[in-house]
């Protein structure tokens, strides 16, 4: 089995046995996702960089206790969430500008479509940021980090039914906000 095809769980098993190369492989696979998640949670690029690195140090420490009840990516995001919340309680820093974190446009689209998408994406991000924390984090995990309902429940430590309820209300509020702002459903 090559390093490219080796599963995350197999890599965690190798980390548990002290394999530093396995940590590097997991870092390469998951660092960007963990960093983006923490940056969205904290609003700080500097804090996100520090916390993302701490997550992989924690992976090194906790690998022997990983039971495999969730995906490795879900486990790492759970560690990242805990560390982000802890850091936010400890200190305040300069916040990044949401427009600096806007999505990269699809190069296949015309400039007009790209502009429309950017405008709608920025509006959607503003509306998402205006949601209560419990709804915002569910939307962020689902739509910006591709987590399933059960994975979101694991990351947040809440029942799946609660995730579904929060998702329902968050989507309803986002739809109402988009409609009130004059945006049609669909993309762009």
From TrEMBL:
CDD domains, alphabetized: Sigma70_r4
Keywords: Sigma factor, Transcription, Transcription regulation
Gene3D superfamilies: 1.10.1740.10, Winged helix-like DNA-binding domain superfamily/Winged helix DNA-binding domain
Domain RNA polymerase sigma factor 70 region 4 type: 123-174
InterPro entries reported for this sequence: RNA_pol_sigma-70-like, RNA_pol_sigma-70_dom, RNA_pol_sigma70_r2, RNA_pol_sigma70_r4_t2, RNA_pol_sigma_r2, RNA_pol_sigma_r3/r4-like, WH-like_DNA-bd_sf
Family per similarity comment: Belongs to the sigma-70 factor family. ECF subfamily.
PANTHER family attached to this UniProt entry: BLR3042 PROTEIN (PTHR43133:SF32), RNA POLYMERASE ECF-TYPE SIGMA FACTO (PTHR43133)
NCBIfam families: PRK12515.1, sigma70-ECF
Protein's UniProt name: Sigma-70 family RNA polymerase sigma factor
Taxonomic placement: Bacteria, Pseudomonadati, Pseudomonadota, Alphaproteobacteria, Hyphomicrobiales
